[in-house]
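A further point concerns the way the authors explain their paired sequence and structure data. Since the whole study asks how a given chain folds, the encoding of that fold should be made plain. A single example would do more here than another paragraph of explanation. An entry of this sort, consisting of the sequence and the corresponding backbone structure tokens, reads as follows:

_____
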Amino acid sequence: MSKLVIVESPSKAKTIKKYLGPDFEVVASMGHVRDLPKSRLSIDIKNNFEPKYVVMKDKQELVKKLKELASDSEFVYLATDPDREGEAISWHLSYILKLPENQKNRVEFTEITKTGVANGMSNPRELNIDLVDAQQARRLLDRIVGYKLSPFVSQKIRRGLSAGRVQSVALRIIVDREEEIRKFVPQEYWSIDAKFIPRGSRKSFNSSFYGTADGKKLAINNEDEANKILSELDGGEYTITKVKNGYRKKSPAPPFITSTLQQEASRKLNFRAQRTMKVAQELYEGVEIDGMGATGLITYMRTDSLRMSAESIASAREYILGKWGDKYLHSKERVYKSRSNAQDGHEAIRPSMPWLEPEKIKHNLTLDQYKLYKLIWERFIACQMADANHKTTQADIICNGYMFKASGYRVTFDGYTVLYVEGKDVDEEKTSELPPLEPSTIVKAKELKPNQHFTQPPARFTEASLVKALEENGIGRPSTYAATISTITSREYVKRESKALVPTELGEELTKLMKKCFPNIVNVKFTAGMEENLDTVEKGTTGWVELLKDFYGDFDDTLKKAKKDMDGVKITLKEDQTDMVCEKCGRQMVVKYGRYGKFIACPGWPECENIKKFVVETGVDCPKCDGKIIVKKTKRGRAFYGCDHYPDCDFASWDEPLTEKCPRCGGILFSKKGKRPKIYCASESCGYIKDEK
């Protein structure tokens, strides 16, 4: 009789089976097997918020199989993911399989390697009920907010809308930024940028106007002020009065946690948060590696701890020593301190085998897996490397009572930057190396150029900067960021413009309604406080029922007041209005939303039942017939372009048709997105292609 180990995914099961051998049966639960049914609230609020869980419809056959395997096994180990969600899945499995309470059957694998699996199996523990209660409190709280608010906002704005505890705050942050941008009034300012050449030298260096000769900074507000300064500088002698040389050190960034991995993957790889977490899950659960079989390549990817095991640090330092030598190894082990509110249950995200270079296994990985593994590996190895050293120079140049300043640096030792440099959300101003400069040296003004500037509004959020803002404000948890961003974009509350997240009219009106009727739900500090309260459940200092009771009283009163205050109010969006006139009754037709998506309808329903199909036109003629190309969607919701004469005409394309004509033949142009974007002519005989990179 074998022992049964239940994990969450088939790939993880396959990897673990390899290490455990024939005495163990390893099967996957495929995530949650029991949950609150979607059809109703399923929480008995009057009876201490008792949840009514059911086995999910698509898991009933699997649960039947698990019960059979469990009854035939001498022992059942619950080895779901090592986090709050994984603990809850194990708890539900324990209930369904009728496993003994307080049995030490819960095992955790922080990395899917031979050592990681052996450590987990040798240290089984009882289920952590505080962890389960924390997940349950979060689940029920989100269900109450979502199921109570969503019908309200759907009734007031548009059918099928949703409002959630974390997503509503994330949306508000984006909307508030958009309001800041709209209200921003640019202020004019000027700079005077110079190029100087030291006497006896041919090499010029850049400098900028600073202020008066006594060191007082002087703002240039307009062109007249700039021209006045230039006229007073005219014909003057420029002298270097001060040169300050110094040194600075740059230290490597710490290893990744969930949020910083999502941010850096967005900056450097252009990965969305959801894509990052999907690929990281694959790397954690195991990939087939030549000579090694199914192997977990990274530690668990949902963590906010910067802790690293002594073994992994030693392995990284050994690798650095062998690859670059003692000069590139930091003098002592680098240890990083986690934030005060970090859950320290897991290590930072790192390669499970630091000696396993990305290039050596590139042929075993998908392109996404290789890119993300390389990013994680380089960041971890770099964190144990020596600092980069820069020699810095600053110089003051004086002429006719005015001062210019020049600064630059030279890399004297590249240190960790030989391997990895952290990305930035905003490009840093580039400075070049200055030539040798000495006080009292006369320099020649090769160029004096006045430049007009305007102050810039705050930048729109990208996925990377939004994740950073959510983390800094204590909104949600790193494991929820990807799902939150996915929700607000898929619901069309936010659209993407290049990397920027821009609120739609729908998103702005929804936020306006939430601010008016449910100010606490979209209040950043209130939501952050709720996250802290949920953490106290995990620590065992607050009961989950007590937390829900404290929240629900005010929430229910606010909801009742909102329903009363907004009785009979319907918010109409500009984007839902059309210029079509109902031919039956003369009313202006509107866009409506039904079970199967958008349609055009007369607002006079039920008196007038006139409806029409909703069509998104491209304004481009079909290249195969006299029809028009319109936007269509697959069953999975992916947009493509096809002829409106279908099925008589079968033209279809994933690439977007453009209204501009081919400059070569006058035909239809298409825009192809992706890694190699291009614009090309639909006519094969023409062959016109324009590279968009």
Residues 18 and 591 are 56 Å apart (CA to CA). The two ends are 62 Å apart (CA to CA). The mean pLDDT is 91.
